[in-house]
Each structure stands twice: as structure tokens, then as C-alpha cells.
Amino acid sequence: MEQKVVLVDDEVPARSLLKEYLQAYPQLKVVAECKNGIEAIGIINVLQPDLVFLDIQMPGKTGLEVLQEIEHLPQIIFATAFDKYALDAFNANAVDYLLKPFTRERFDQALRKALQKEPSVMQNLMALSESLQGKTYPERILVEQGNKWITLPVVEIYWLEAEGDYTKIHTAKQSFLSSKGISELETRLNPQQFQRVHRSAIIALNAIREIHREPTGPQVVLQNGITVKVSRSYTDALRRLIY
Questions:
Q1: pTM
Q2: InterPro entries attached here (predicted)?
């Protein structure tokens, strides 16, 4: 069965080498090439490939940012000149991490891993599982910290705060800035674990220490002492949590 492949790399020679090595695999068809991360997101979501070879350092969006924003989740083999992102790549469930320059033998090794996973079958099973069990939510997310990305367990999040078109993700000890809006992040969080309490705030239910009744409305005090105001339009939703 033919499988679709997308190549994402801003360097033409790198894409040419991948195409050359892929000629030994007639069951794999390169359906698109992308030269930057923004282009890759649209192509991957539309063409829904089985396998993507993905560079990390690219114009527009990095490879790790691409993974955060795609809706279709193919198998990913990173092909990059930077070894410092390997841990982040594997935490994002990449099949393999090819460090440039790589040999044909190393390429074949990575591709064997991908082919052994039978991606089309896995994706069908995942889709079936989600339809039977409902939408699934990530237990870990990638967040930016300086010049790198780290994995953050969702259970460590205390609250999220809108900051213009961006969102600050707060834990007990530090904060991270996401390029996503708070409403978009709300759709990605488990509603059994998080509650919107204001148009600019979402709290983790496990992080609540107490709730104060104030003349201006309820205020939630988190375990780290931070107070988050509850707006009138979200008061009823918060009351439903009280037994």
C-alpha cells in the first residue's frame, strides 16, 4: 500500500538527498516539499501524509512549533544539524532523530522503524479509540524556555493568563509564554482538570487552595498564594464544582 511522505527542510540539497534515499522505497511517495514551518503546517493538515521528514531550525516556525500546531499527526523523523533538540523530539514521540550529515545506512535504520509501526493501521486504531472513548488530552506539552523547548507535565500547570494574543502558562515556580491565544489553549485542556473563570484566566482545579466570597465576586486562591478573580459570567460554572 502506497504511503504519502512530506519533506520539510529549508535547504534544497537536504531535500534532494532525502528524495534520493527514498527512491529505494517504491511504497513511499513524496507528495510535497516545504521550505519553512508555516508552509509545512498547512500542507500536513491538508495532505495528511503518513510520514514527515522534519527539520528543526527553519524560517517562520521551527520543527517543534510545527508539531504543536498540526492537526493531523503523521509519523515524524527529524533530520537536523542540531543535536540539542533530540530529547524534545523523542518526548514528542518522533520515530527517530537523524543528525546531519547522516549516511544511507543511518537513513535506512530510521525508515525501518517507521515502516515497522504501520502508520496507517495505527492512525485508524487511534481514531477508533477516540471515537469510543471521547477526545483525549495531552499529559505533557512543549513550552519555550529561552532558546530551547522543554516538556511540561500538564499536571504542573496552576493557571493560564491571557496576555494580548498570547498566553502565559504558570506553574508553581515559573511561567512560560505561549504564542497561542487562551481560547485555543482551552480547547486543548481537559475540562475535568481546568476551568475558565475569566475571559483572561483558566485555573487548574487541583491547584485551588480556597475560594473567597467578595463583594465584587468570587476570588480563587491557588496553592502558591496567587489570587485569580472570577468574572460574573463564569461564576455559575464555578458554583457547579461545589458540593
A1: 0.50
A2: CheY-like_superfamily, LytR-like, LytTR_DNA-bd_dom, Sig_transdc_resp-reg_receiver
